[in-house]
User: Fold these one by one.
Assistant:
Number 1:
Amino acid sequence: MGYDYKSGKKRVDDILSGKIEIVESGKLPSDDNFTFDNAYHSWVMAIFVDIRDSTSLMAKDDQEYVAKVVRSFTSEIIEILRGDDRERELGIRGDCVYAIYTTPYKSDVYEVFNKTAWINTYLNMLNALLRKHGYEKIKAGIGVALGNDHVIKAGRKGTGINSTVWMGEAVSKAAKLSSYGDKIVGSRIVLSSLVYNNIIEKYKEDHPDKNVEGWFHSSESIPYYGAKYCSVIMTDMDNWIEEGMPD
């Protein structure tokens, strides 16, 4: 699945140019879209995208600015992550957007990983648009991990109080790896060794004239054996950004 970044640019421009009413409410609306199901054991892959220094962002006095940044960040990342028949869960946890996919084959791992390149390039676009509108740029980490994990729906059947629980490495490791991107290491994308091992040969095949292994780096600062970080992007979109994002 591709990402219509020109439509995305218009949506973000509309958000940043518009007015947002900050409603004071003592009670948040509930989400009743959870279901209860049996347990499964399967290959799953998770992507977590986390805003850096979100505590300082959320504490800013200009709450309209904060609302615009958070909405711009979440709306287009969700657009990139959604609409895939491998998707099993997609949501927001605080300042983090995440998605979980079923990935039984290497080809699935490769296609899902490409979403991180779209997100990485989108964040370049978002920062360019933030500068255009007189706002500060943001930093974010993108964590991605793969695991052969157990998945259950936990809660109390019939009460409406239940949620998916992902037991294993994929979700927990992706969440942790996202905290290293654009902070402990200079690149946004941090991927587990299992993801790297499942995508590197396909990358070499698709880019035979490039030193693909040189795109991925290791760091002793990441306490997961074999984890890598990189700055892969979608070049057509990034070139369009560099050209000033013409309509």
Note: Confidence is low (pLDDT under 50) at residues 22-38, 155-162.
Number 2:
Amino acid sequence: MARELTIDFSKFAEALEKVPETVFKAAKRGMHDALDEWRQEAVDIAPLDKGTLRRGIDTRIEGDGLDMVGEVTAIAIEDSPKWPRFNYAYYLHEVKGKITNPTTPGTEAKFLDLPAKENEKKWVREIENEIRRELKKDGW
């Protein structure tokens, strides 16, 4: 006697279609968290004179899905008699950072690079964990 077995995979197929969206949403949330932490650490060690540099450190995420890119940027433009509209964030980080330490004790000229170097692997793990949590929440 032959038996017939019918399996309905439609719910599985629907769930599978949602996986990329779930992963990208969680990855973006994890990236925001990592960038916020990176920004805060950069602010804490950036040279301090008037506070313009520290206020000029910002984050952004562009794109979606596999084309998503996050970055931390710094801009501190002031006018001076010698150099009108001089971006001293760039100067401190890219020029002076190669020559000497900043004059403010406890700060770093490479204020963007140092936190990234120290935390890169941790932040990648945290983004991966965020994706795992979101998938688990969705039943994966």
Note: The two ends are 37 Å apart (CA to CA).
